[in-house]
Amino acid sequence: xxxxxxxxxxxxxxxxxxxxxxxxxxxxxxxxxxxxxxxxxxxxxxxxxxxxxxxxxxxxxxxxxxxxxxxxxxxxxx
Length: 78
Fold this sequence. Notes:
Blueprint (H helix, E strand, L loop, with lengths): L1 E2 L6 H12 L13 H14 L2 E6 L4 E6 L12
Antiparallel strand pairs: 1-2, 2-3
Helix pairs in contact: 1-2
């Protein structure tokens, strides 16, 4: 299920993004990036429609995915 990020409070959205970007195994390359920068980068991509919040109802987990990573059944027509 896609969660419309603009319907979340700024605090809730920031919390979700922080949780995702601080998970083990998250790698942003060789350049050290602050948590605030990572959050801003992800929020920018959400605002542009390049990233989506995806809630897995079975596992009750949330992920941030690109449009290419969305299950085909969830694709939104532009």
